[in-house]
Prior knowledge:
A: mainly beta; 6-stranded mixed beta sheet; 4-stranded antiparallel beta sheet; B: 4-stranded antiparallel beta sheet; globular
Amino acid sequence: EVQLVESGGGLVQPGGSLRLSCAASGFTFSSYDLNWVRQAPGKGLEWLSYISTTGDTRYYADSLKGRFTISRDNAKNSLYLQMNSLRAEDTAVYYCVRDRASSGWAYWGQGTLVTVSS
Amino acid sequence: DIQMTQSPSSLSASVGDRVTITCRASQSISTYLNWYQQKPGKGPKLLISVASSLQTGVPSRFSGSASGTFFTLTISSLQPEDFATYYCQEAYTMPLTFGGGTKVENK
Lengths: 118, 107
């Protein structure tokens, strides 16, 4: 069974940093592209970042302005999102998502809540 | 960046109604359009990929179609479990974008 389990969310002050992790199981991790998607409270879905199987290709949403970095460790079956210079508007549930978008995203994690507040 | 304009943003319908949700892309995305359903407190569920391909296990009352840059999700006969929010997503190019969502409520 495919499982994606996010962790690392929590309360952080504006300007702070946080590193999210996504632990994967039930499939050959190194064979799949991955993404991060977020959803602010009561709002819609926002794609944040993509990483290819080897990590050589990465894309980011323009709105992130270089503050977030996606990475992966295929030996540990893990995906990461390093988030710096956090703002109140980054408050959201963050989801780890498997596959290229062209395939459709059938596998999502349960999400981890990040709250940016003083 | 491609903009996805989804309408309506909300609708009220009754069980048994036919429901149609549309998404318009700001430029050609071929048929690289996915539809998701999301219920409160849950992650999104993929319903349809590449505009019209129904995912395994999704009821056949859901269907998708495309005409140029216009895409439609249709629920032929709304069931109680279908009250949810629906999102379209373009999967043609980066940055990926979602429509604003359509909340289907019980009339």
